[in-house]
Protein backbone atom coordinates (compact mmCIF):
# COMPACT_ATOMS: atom_id res chain seq x y z
CA UNK A 1 0.00 0.00 0.00
CA UNK A 2 2.72 2.46 1.01
CA UNK A 3 4.88 1.47 -1.96
CA UNK A 4 2.62 3.38 -4.36
CA UNK A 5 2.65 6.52 -2.18
CA UNK A 6 5.43 9.05 -2.42
CA UNK A 7 7.81 9.59 0.45
CA UNK A 8 6.39 13.07 1.12
CA UNK A 9 2.83 11.73 1.43
CA UNK A 10 3.99 8.84 3.64
CA UNK A 11 5.71 11.33 5.93
CA UNK A 12 2.57 13.46 6.07
CA UNK A 13 0.35 10.45 6.87
CA UNK A 14 2.67 9.32 9.69
CA UNK A 15 2.84 12.81 11.21
CA UNK A 16 -0.94 13.25 11.03
CA UNK A 17 -1.48 9.80 12.53
CA UNK A 18 0.74 10.55 15.50
CA UNK A 19 -0.88 13.96 16.02
CA UNK A 20 -4.49 12.79 15.57
CA UNK A 21 -5.12 11.42 19.08
CA UNK A 22 -3.37 14.31 20.92
CA UNK A 23 -5.30 16.83 18.82
CA UNK A 24 -8.60 15.07 19.55
CA UNK A 25 -7.85 15.07 23.28
CA UNK A 26 -6.77 18.73 23.13
CA UNK A 27 -9.95 19.71 21.34
CA UNK A 28 -12.15 17.60 23.63
CA UNK A 29 -10.71 18.74 26.96
CA UNK A 30 -9.45 22.26 26.13
CA UNK A 31 -11.07 23.97 23.14
CA UNK A 32 -14.57 22.51 23.45
CA UNK A 33 -14.92 23.55 27.14
CA UNK A 34 -13.55 26.99 26.24
CA UNK A 35 -16.16 27.43 23.51
CA UNK A 36 -18.92 26.28 25.87
CA UNK A 37 -17.64 28.70 28.51
CA UNK A 38 -17.91 31.58 26.04
CA UNK A 39 -21.44 30.46 25.15
CA UNK A 40 -22.52 30.21 28.80
CA UNK A 41 -21.19 33.72 29.46
CA UNK A 42 -23.99 35.07 27.25
CA UNK A 43 -26.70 33.15 29.09
CA UNK A 44 -28.43 33.20 32.48
CA UNK A 45 -27.85 29.49 33.15
CA UNK A 46 -28.25 28.25 36.71
CA UNK A 47 -26.03 25.19 36.24
CA UNK A 48 -28.66 22.44 36.17
CA UNK A 49 -31.70 23.66 34.24
CA UNK A 50 -31.99 22.51 30.60
CA UNK A 51 -33.04 26.04 29.65
CA UNK A 52 -30.25 28.53 29.07
CA UNK A 53 -31.88 31.94 28.54
CA UNK A 54 -29.84 34.16 26.24
CA UNK A 55 -29.01 37.51 27.87
CA UNK A 56 -26.36 38.84 25.51
CA UNK A 57 -23.81 41.13 27.13
CA UNK A 58 -25.74 41.54 30.38
CA UNK A 59 -23.31 39.40 32.38
CA UNK A 60 -20.32 41.39 31.15
CA UNK A 61 -22.10 44.67 31.91
CA UNK A 62 -22.83 43.44 35.42
CA UNK A 63 -19.19 42.50 36.00
CA UNK A 64 -17.88 45.90 34.93
CA UNK A 65 -20.69 47.79 36.70
CA UNK A 66 -20.17 46.01 40.02
CA UNK A 67 -17.18 47.63 41.70
CA UNK A 68 -17.14 44.95 44.43
CA UNK A 69 -16.11 42.34 41.86
CA UNK A 70 -13.03 44.22 40.71
CA UNK A 71 -12.24 45.40 44.23
CA UNK A 72 -11.03 41.91 45.12
CA UNK A 73 -8.14 42.33 42.67
CA UNK A 74 -6.41 44.53 45.25
CA UNK A 75 -6.13 41.43 47.44
CA UNK A 76 -4.05 39.82 44.71
CA UNK A 77 -1.44 42.59 44.94
CA UNK A 78 0.23 40.91 47.94
CA UNK A 79 0.76 37.75 45.86
CA UNK A 80 2.34 39.82 43.08
CA UNK A 81 4.75 41.51 45.52
CA UNK A 82 5.72 38.19 47.10
CA UNK A 83 6.05 36.61 43.67
CA UNK A 84 8.53 39.25 42.51
CA UNK A 85 10.53 38.89 45.76
CA UNK A 86 10.39 35.13 45.27
CA UNK A 87 12.03 35.44 41.84
CA UNK A 88 14.75 37.73 43.19
CA UNK A 89 15.58 35.31 46.02
CA UNK A 90 15.42 32.37 43.58
CA UNK A 91 17.98 34.05 41.31
CA UNK A 92 20.19 34.73 44.34
CA UNK A 93 20.16 31.10 45.48
CA UNK A 94 20.56 29.87 41.89
CA UNK A 95 23.75 31.89 41.49
CA UNK A 96 25.12 30.72 44.85
CA UNK A 97 24.26 27.06 44.24
CA UNK A 98 25.77 27.17 40.75
CA UNK A 99 29.17 28.04 42.17
CA UNK A 100 31.75 25.67 43.63
CA UNK A 101 29.98 25.28 46.96
CA UNK A 102 30.43 22.14 49.04
CA UNK A 103 27.14 20.28 49.49
CA UNK A 104 25.29 22.39 46.95
CA UNK A 105 23.24 19.43 45.68
CA UNK A 106 21.93 18.85 49.19
CA UNK A 107 20.91 22.50 49.50
CA UNK A 108 19.18 22.31 46.12
CA UNK A 109 17.13 19.33 47.27
CA UNK A 110 16.20 21.00 50.56
CA UNK A 111 15.02 24.16 48.81
CA UNK A 112 13.14 22.25 46.10
CA UNK A 113 11.30 19.86 48.47
CA UNK A 114 8.47 22.28 49.39
CA UNK A 115 7.38 22.41 45.74
CA UNK A 116 6.58 18.69 45.56
CA UNK A 117 4.34 18.89 48.63
CA UNK A 118 0.57 18.89 48.17
CA UNK A 119 -0.86 22.41 48.11
CA UNK A 120 -3.71 21.65 50.54
CA UNK A 121 -1.28 19.95 52.95
CA UNK A 122 0.97 23.03 52.81
CA UNK A 123 -2.02 25.27 53.54
CA UNK A 124 -3.03 23.23 56.59
CA UNK A 125 0.57 23.16 57.81
CA UNK A 126 0.85 26.94 57.64
CA UNK A 127 -2.51 27.19 59.38
CA UNK A 128 -0.70 25.88 62.47
CA UNK A 129 2.25 28.21 61.82
CA UNK A 130 0.03 31.31 61.73
CA UNK A 131 -2.26 30.27 64.59
CA UNK A 132 -2.65 33.18 67.01
CA UNK A 133 -2.44 31.30 70.32
CA UNK A 134 -0.42 28.17 69.64
CA UNK A 135 1.19 29.01 66.31
CA UNK A 136 4.91 28.35 65.89
CA UNK A 137 5.50 31.81 64.42
CA UNK A 138 4.12 33.66 67.45
CA UNK A 139 5.92 31.25 69.78
CA UNK A 140 9.19 32.02 67.99
CA UNK A 141 8.61 35.77 68.20
CA UNK A 142 7.87 35.53 71.93
CA UNK A 143 10.94 33.38 72.55
CA UNK A 144 13.28 35.94 70.96
CA UNK A 145 11.79 38.84 72.90
CA UNK A 146 9.42 40.27 70.28
CA UNK A 147 6.38 39.92 72.50
CA UNK A 148 4.74 42.93 70.82
CA UNK A 149 4.42 40.82 67.67
CA UNK A 150 3.95 37.50 69.43
CA UNK A 151 0.18 37.85 69.75
CA UNK A 152 -0.49 38.95 66.18
CA UNK A 153 -3.44 37.42 64.36
CA UNK A 154 -1.70 36.83 61.04
CA UNK A 155 -4.78 35.44 59.30
CA UNK A 156 -7.31 37.60 61.13
CA UNK A 157 -5.91 41.07 60.48
CA UNK A 158 -7.09 42.74 57.30
CA UNK A 159 -3.77 44.36 56.43
CA UNK A 160 -1.70 41.24 57.10
CA UNK A 161 -3.78 38.30 55.92
CA UNK A 162 -2.94 38.49 52.21
CA UNK A 163 0.80 38.93 52.81
CA UNK A 164 0.73 36.04 55.28
CA UNK A 165 -0.96 33.83 52.71
CA UNK A 166 1.39 35.01 49.96
CA UNK A 167 4.42 34.17 52.09
CA UNK A 168 3.23 30.56 52.02
CA UNK A 169 3.47 30.59 48.24
CA UNK A 170 6.91 32.21 48.54
CA UNK A 171 8.11 29.29 50.68
CA UNK A 172 6.59 26.67 48.40
CA UNK A 173 7.54 27.89 44.92
CA UNK A 174 10.90 29.60 45.48
CA UNK A 175 12.80 26.32 45.10
CA UNK A 176 11.00 25.51 41.84
CA UNK A 177 11.99 28.86 40.33
CA UNK A 178 15.51 28.38 41.67
CA UNK A 179 15.88 25.09 39.76
CA UNK A 180 14.71 26.77 36.54
CA UNK A 181 17.22 29.57 37.01
CA UNK A 182 20.00 27.06 37.74
CA UNK A 183 19.25 25.35 34.43
CA UNK A 184 19.40 28.74 32.71
CA UNK A 185 22.75 29.54 34.35
CA UNK A 186 24.22 26.22 33.27
CA UNK A 187 23.37 27.06 29.66
CA UNK A 188 25.60 30.16 29.72
CA UNK A 189 29.03 29.38 28.18
CA UNK A 190 31.86 29.40 30.72
CA UNK A 191 34.12 31.10 28.17
CA UNK A 192 32.21 34.36 28.65
CA UNK A 193 32.94 34.39 32.37
CA UNK A 194 36.59 33.56 31.79
CA UNK A 195 36.89 36.42 29.30
CA UNK A 196 35.21 38.81 31.74
CA UNK A 197 37.57 37.73 34.51
CA UNK A 198 40.58 38.35 32.28
CA UNK A 199 39.22 41.81 31.45
CA UNK A 200 39.03 42.61 35.16
CA UNK A 201 35.25 42.52 35.67
CA UNK A 202 34.18 42.16 39.29
CA UNK A 203 31.31 39.99 40.56
CA UNK A 204 28.66 42.72 40.32
CA UNK A 205 29.67 43.69 36.79
CA UNK A 206 29.58 40.04 35.76
CA UNK A 207 26.10 39.69 37.24
CA UNK A 208 24.64 42.76 35.50
CA UNK A 209 26.48 42.49 32.17
CA UNK A 210 26.61 38.72 31.61
CA UNK A 211 24.44 36.62 33.94
CA UNK A 212 21.15 38.53 33.97
CA UNK A 213 21.11 39.42 30.22
CA UNK A 214 21.67 35.76 29.34
CA UNK A 215 18.84 34.74 31.68
CA UNK A 216 16.41 37.28 30.21
CA UNK A 217 14.17 34.77 28.42
CA UNK A 218 13.77 32.59 31.52
CA UNK A 219 13.20 35.62 33.77
CA UNK A 220 10.58 36.83 31.33
CA UNK A 221 8.78 33.48 31.45
CA UNK A 222 8.90 33.30 35.26
CA UNK A 223 7.62 36.87 35.60
CA UNK A 224 4.68 36.06 33.35
CA UNK A 225 3.90 32.97 35.41
CA UNK A 226 4.23 35.05 38.57
CA UNK A 227 1.76 37.69 37.39
CA UNK A 228 -0.77 35.18 36.08
CA UNK A 229 -0.37 33.10 39.22
CA UNK A 230 -1.08 36.18 41.34
CA UNK A 231 -4.26 36.81 39.34
CA UNK A 232 -5.43 33.20 39.66
CA UNK A 233 -4.79 32.52 43.37
CA UNK A 234 -7.44 30.28 44.89
CA UNK A 235 -6.28 27.34 47.01
CA UNK A 236 -4.45 29.10 49.86
CA UNK A 237 -7.15 31.61 50.87
CA UNK A 238 -9.90 29.05 50.25
CA UNK A 239 -8.37 26.49 52.60
CA UNK A 240 -7.00 28.81 55.31
CA UNK A 241 -9.40 31.76 55.53
CA UNK A 242 -12.42 31.09 53.28
CA UNK A 243 -11.94 34.67 52.11
CA UNK A 244 -12.03 36.16 55.62
CA UNK A 245 -11.85 38.17 57.69
CA UNK A 246 -14.94 39.93 56.26
CA UNK A 247 -13.83 39.17 52.70
CA UNK A 248 -10.38 40.74 53.18
CA UNK A 249 -8.60 37.76 51.58
CA UNK A 250 -11.16 36.85 48.94
CA UNK A 251 -9.60 36.65 45.48
CA UNK A 252 -11.12 37.03 42.04
CA UNK A 253 -11.15 33.28 41.38
CA UNK A 254 -12.87 32.70 44.72
CA UNK A 255 -15.50 35.21 43.62
CA UNK A 256 -15.97 33.27 40.40
CA UNK A 257 -16.38 29.98 42.28
CA UNK A 258 -18.81 31.62 44.70
CA UNK A 259 -20.92 33.01 41.86
CA UNK A 260 -21.13 29.59 40.22
CA UNK A 261 -21.57 27.18 43.11
CA UNK A 262 -22.99 29.31 45.93
CA UNK A 263 -25.39 31.46 43.91
CA UNK A 264 -25.89 29.10 40.92
CA UNK A 265 -25.15 31.92 38.50
CA UNK A 266 -23.04 30.04 35.97
CA UNK A 267 -23.59 32.66 33.28
CA UNK A 268 -22.05 35.43 35.39
CA UNK A 269 -19.24 33.14 36.57
CA UNK A 270 -18.46 32.24 32.95
CA UNK A 271 -18.29 35.93 32.00
CA UNK A 272 -15.96 36.58 34.94
CA UNK A 273 -13.73 33.71 33.79
CA UNK A 274 -13.55 35.10 30.25
CA UNK A 275 -12.61 38.53 31.61
CA UNK A 276 -9.84 36.95 33.71
CA UNK A 277 -8.56 35.17 30.60
CA UNK A 278 -8.51 38.49 28.73
CA UNK A 279 -6.57 40.08 31.59
CA UNK A 280 -3.97 37.32 31.36
CA UNK A 281 -3.65 37.84 27.59
CA UNK A 282 -3.30 41.60 28.08
CA UNK A 283 -0.59 41.08 30.70
CA UNK A 284 1.29 38.78 28.31
CA UNK A 285 1.05 41.29 25.45
CA UNK A 286 2.18 44.19 27.65
CA UNK A 287 5.12 42.19 28.96
CA UNK A 288 6.15 41.17 25.46
CA UNK A 289 5.87 44.80 24.29
CA UNK A 290 7.89 46.24 27.18
CA UNK A 291 10.63 43.61 27.07
CA UNK A 292 10.89 43.68 23.27
CA UNK A 293 11.39 47.47 23.37
CA UNK A 294 14.03 47.00 26.05
CA UNK A 295 15.77 44.43 23.86
CA UNK A 296 15.75 46.73 20.81
CA UNK A 297 17.59 49.39 22.74
Structure overview:
The chain has 297 residues and is mainly alpha-helical. It has a single domain, classed as Orthogonal Bundle (MetI-like fold). 69% of the residues lie in helices and 0% in strands. The protein is built from 14 helices and no strands. It has helices spanning 7-40, 58-65, 67-71, 77-96, 104-112, 119-129, 136-143, 161-186, 190-198, 203-214, 216-231, 235-240, 252-262, 266-296. α4 packs antiparallel against α11 (216-231), α5 packs across α8 and α13 packs antiparallel against α14. The mean pLDDT is 87.
Helix-strand layout with pairing:
Layout: H1 7-40, H2 58-65, H3 67-71, H4 77-96, H5 104-112, H6 119-129, H7 136-143, H8 161-186, H9 190-198, H10 203-214, H11 216-231, H12 235-240, H13 252-262, H14 266-296
Pfam families: BPD_transp_1
Membrane topology: Multi-pass membrane protein
Domain ABC transmembrane type-1: 76-287
Key features?
cell membrane; 297 residues; ABC transporter permease; transmembrane helix; ABC_transporter_permease; MetI-like fold; flat; mainly alpha
Using the 3D structure, state the CATH architecture: Orthogonal Bundle
Q: Cα distance, first to last residue? A: 57 Å
CATH topology label = MetI-like fold
Main sheet properties: none
Explain briefly what this protein structure is.
By secondary structure, the protein is mainly α. Helices cover 69% and strands 0% of the residues.
Amino acid sequence: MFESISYHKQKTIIIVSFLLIPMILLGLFTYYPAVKLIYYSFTNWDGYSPEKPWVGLSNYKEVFANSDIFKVFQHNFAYLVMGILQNIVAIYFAIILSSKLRGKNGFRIILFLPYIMNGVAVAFMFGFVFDTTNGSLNMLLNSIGLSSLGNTSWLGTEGLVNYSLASTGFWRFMGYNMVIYIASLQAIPRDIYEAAKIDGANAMQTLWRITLPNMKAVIQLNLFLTVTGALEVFDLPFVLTKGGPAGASQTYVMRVIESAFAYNNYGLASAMSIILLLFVVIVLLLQQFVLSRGGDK
